Amino acid sequence: MSASLLRRGLELLEPPGRAKAPPGLQRGRAGPRAAGAARRRKRAPEPGRNKATVKGRVVKSAIEEYHKKKPVNHLRENLKYMLKGRLVADKTVTEQVVAQNRGRKSKDQPPEKTEKKKPEGTVFTEEDFRKFEREYFGIP
User: What is the reported pTM?
Assistant: First the structure.
């Protein structure tokens, strides 16, 4: 709702004995150029001191300015804050949260874990192979 519609609605709700608000409290514009005129009034040059002169200027120390703007290392405070609360959630809860935040597209899904097959060893021993050799090839 615009401000003008709101003002009109409030004027309709005013008691009949009371007229408009005092001119100091009114915020209406006189026309489309009123904002520009207000801007120009603010920008009027002040007859104060001339800023091009050096008189009255305080020289700032470059070292002080550097120390003011020097970055502060907050690592220690941040580590204390992070290590202060040692509440660790259950693994099942964290997995649920991660699953909920994961997208539905296949590219967002983690690769399925396949169980590795153990290499199957032979059931036969060396002695069984020698026995088979003797029986099959006839080698003593």
Answer: 0.22
